[in-house]
Amino acid sequence: MAKFVPQEELSLVDQVKIRREKLAQLQAEGNDPFARTRFAVDSNSGCIKDNFEQMEGKTVAVAGRLMSKRGMGKVIFCDLQDAAGRIQLYLKFDEMPEADFEACRKLDIGDIVGVNGDVFRTQRGEISVRAHQVTLLSKALLPLPDKFHGLTNVETRYRQRYVDLIANPEVKDTFVKRSMILRELRAFLDSKGFLEVDTPILTPFEIGASARPFFTHHNTLNMDMVLRIETELYLKRLVVGGMDRVYEVGRIFRNEGMDPKHNPEFTTIELYQAYTDYHGMMDLVEEMMKTVAQKVCGTLQIRYQGKQIDLSHWERMTMVEAVKKYSGVDFDTVATDEEAVTLAKQHHVALPEIPTKGAILAEFFDAFVEEKLIQPTFIYDYPVENSPLAKRKASDPAYTERFEYFINATEFGNAFSELNDPIDQKERFERQVAERRMLDPKSNAQVDYDYVTALEYGLPPTGGLGFGVDRLVMLLTDSASIRDVLLFPTMKPLDK
Q1: What is the pLDDT of residues 202-241, one digit of tens each?
Q2: To 5 degrees, how large is the angle CA 288–CA 196–CA 178?
Q3: What Å distances lie between residue 339 and 26, 241, 322, 343, 361, CA to CA?
Q4: Is the pLDDT confidence value at 98 over 60?
Q5: Which residues of 415-444 are buried (b: 16+ CB within 10 A; e: fewer)?
């Protein structure tokens, strides 16, 4: 007599062959599982476990994926995984039609089934569903990863997220939490009187910003178009139009590098509020971060990659103050670009392509400060050279009313007192485009003159903020890479 070999111990090729043979037999018998269209579900694993005392003895209909099967005699135990978790199934030979019981013997791990039965607790105390009828709803033609080790290869997990979600339940928890974070962000902004809007993803031309875009072509209009790198200019047009508080949860596309903090497409929230400034935006960010963290995590003490982050306390420093604190160099005493260049060489700081005092200050910040900002910190008053859309400080026009906020040495968001002087804005746009073309002669960057026109109708004093949703999700789920919080991150194609 041939020795019985568990299917999971066979080669992948043999396992697939057996599963396809079972499918062919079912179809030949008129029981094609893929022909079934619906199953009336009235409960799930979580509901049954949470309300066992009320549900004990009641008939339920549950559905999900078989994750294990044990016992081949007159009793079979299975684990059913549904959207709420797992629950044990109890199948007994004399408690269901013989043909149905024999059909259940042939089910494979990964098959999707519907179960009608009653709720009870086994002698070992396990809450279970005693099956009276099991219906095969979809046949799994590929086996799941090894039941003891799951799906562990990182590349495969990202490429086959559908298997990752089945094999690693904690992955699903991350994305459930991501949904909660987005819901709480919207709830917070809605409570402050902000209106959620949608603006175009396809834009007519490349603007002068430093981010590199993706290009496409519209056939009907016979024109090249650009996938947006921000939502800012359209949203501020709406503030001109009288929408005093607007925000957008938007997908952004940048044709640039990839690393644990960057993906070519990512999600941001940009918001604009009339009659406030960047200090008002700081207050908004601090309240928003505390509110969302408390609602989602239940605490403001967040553990991230081995570090304790205290979201209850936020430090505020100007960029000049931060550079002085961590490098010892006081840019308030630097009078000329030439002096700044000398300081950069003395401190081994890389010179920017256009070495002005403000640009060199930003390089000092990158070299000496950012890696030190572990706890929540606002850095404000940025040099005008790298802030083309921010309002100049009235007390010192070399700086702008702009801030970024940092946690764990990572920039989380960017905010301005928005520039509403159309003459100044036009000059900055034109200078930005000229510099872009000087650095990249092939660039097709253009000035958005329609936005300048909008400003000429009058933009009220406005505070604006943009922040990455993905980085916030990373923080609140203790995820090391942006790929861990994107269901389908961008991946290099596999060789054919």
Answers
A1: 999 888 777 889 999 999 999 999 999 999 999 999 999 9
A2: 55
A3: 82, 45, 19, 6, 11
A4: yes
A5: bbbbbbebebbbebbeebbebbeeeeeeee
